[in-house]
């Protein structure tokens, strides 16, 4: 039966018979996707200085990675690479939107990043960026005082780990 689902991580809705294996917007794993009528999803959280100190750079990481992937999607010399980087750019932009909501900003800051023409160079840069994000988010999840912030960082570690696998399969 067709149902309305909602992702707990990005908050976006999805229509389908079954919950998707991964959120089509933010890449969150299936365990975070619940029926919309039962979803208790909030971005209005009280966060302490330390969590705030991790949420702000998390927004910067996502803005920077989205800009890099959109650049790579245009410039890379491999047709499948273009599609991969487009998909990853959209997901990272969705991650930036999560932190925009948490930080209660009106809009997401503009990103501008360099990228490469050679696909392999972009895959190496993707690997470097995702490794850095995973390290930072793992530490931020462990340190988080607020349970919602902990949930977000934990889900992001899982998602960025999937992105790392995508570059590793191609390098
Ligand atoms: Fe999502
Ligand atoms: Fe991300």
Key attributes of the depicted protein:
single chain; 171 residues; mainly alpha; 4 helices; 3 strands; binds fe (ii) ion
Description of the structure:
With about 170 residues, the chain is mainly alpha-helical. The chain has helices spanning about 50-75, 80-100, 120-145, 145-170; strands spanning about 5, 15, 35. The protein has a three-stranded antiparallel sheet with strand order 2-1-3, with no helix packed on it. The model has no long low-confidence stretch (mean pLDDT about 95). Bound molecules: fe (ii) ion (2 copies).
The beta-strand count equals 3
Our count of helices gives 4
> What is the N-to-C succession of helices and strands?
EEEHHHH
Envelope shape: globular
Q: For the report, how would you describe the main beta sheet?
A: 3 strands, antiparallel
Strand order of the largest sheet: 2-1-3
- Tell me the strand percentage band: 5-15%
How confident is the prediction overall: mean pLDDT?
97
Give me the Rg, rounded.
16 Å
Helical fraction equals: 55-70%
Distance between the termini: 41 Å
Structural class: mainly alpha
Ligand kinds: fe (ii) ion
Parts with pLDDT < 50 across at least 5 consecutive residues: none
Chain-wise SSE layout:
Elements (H helix, E strand, L loop, with lengths): L2 E5 L5 E4 L16 E3 L13 H27 L3 H24 L16 H25 L3 H24 L1
Antiparallel strand pairs: 1-2, 1-3
The structure holds fe (ii) ion (2 copies).
């Amino acid at each position: 039966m067709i149902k309305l689902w909602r992702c707990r991580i990005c908050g976006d809705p999805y229509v389908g018979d079954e919950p998707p294996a991964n959120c089509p917007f933010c890449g969150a794993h299936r365990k975070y996707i619940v029926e919309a009528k039962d979803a208790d999803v909030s971005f209005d959280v009280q966060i302490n200085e330390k969590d705030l100190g991790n949420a702000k750079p998390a927004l910067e990481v996502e803005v920077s990675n989205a800009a890099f992937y959109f650049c790579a999607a245009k410039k890379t010399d491999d047709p499948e690479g273009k599609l991969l980087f487009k998909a990853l750019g959209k997901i990272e932009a969705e991650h930036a939107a999560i932190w925009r909501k948490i930080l209660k900003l009106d809009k997401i800051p503009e990103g501008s990043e360099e990228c490469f023409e050679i696909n392999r160079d972009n895959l190496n840069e993707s690997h470097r960026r995702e490794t850095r994000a995973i390290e930072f988010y793992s530490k931020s999840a462990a340190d988080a005082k607020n349970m919602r912030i902990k949930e977000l960082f934990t889900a992001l570690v899982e998602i960025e780990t999937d992105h790392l696998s995508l570059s590793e399969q191609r390098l």
